[in-house]
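Please fill in the sequence for the structure shown.

STRUCTURE ENCODING:
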């Protein structure tokens, strides 16, 4: 039985996005910086550690944009940016 978007709760969408992205990348996501629901999908921005360095502030992370269908299945992902952990966004 598949669930419809109205049945998929935000916490479930967040879990599905991180689990499926981790399976594809072979790396565990560190955090989710955004989660949005549209009429026919869920969208999330997920932060992933790509290169661990010492000191930790120089480690490289990436922000991935993930799109899930109404049932919570990943339909696309895209790396949008890479940055060091110590980098502060201005603006």
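FILLED IN BY: designer on duty
SEQUENCE:
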């Amino acid at each position: 039985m598949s669930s419809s978007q109205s049945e998929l709760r935000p916490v479930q969408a967040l879990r599905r996005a991180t689990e499926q992205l981790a399976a594809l990348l072979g790396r565990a996501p560190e955090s989710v910086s955004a989660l949005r629901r549209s009429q026919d999908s869920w969208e999330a921005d997920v932060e992933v550690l790509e290169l661990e360095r010492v000191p930790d502030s120089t480690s490289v992370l990436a922000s991935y944009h993930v799109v899930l269908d109404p049932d919570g299945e990943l339909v696309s992902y895209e790396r949008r940016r890479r940055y060091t952990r110590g980098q502060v966004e201005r603006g």
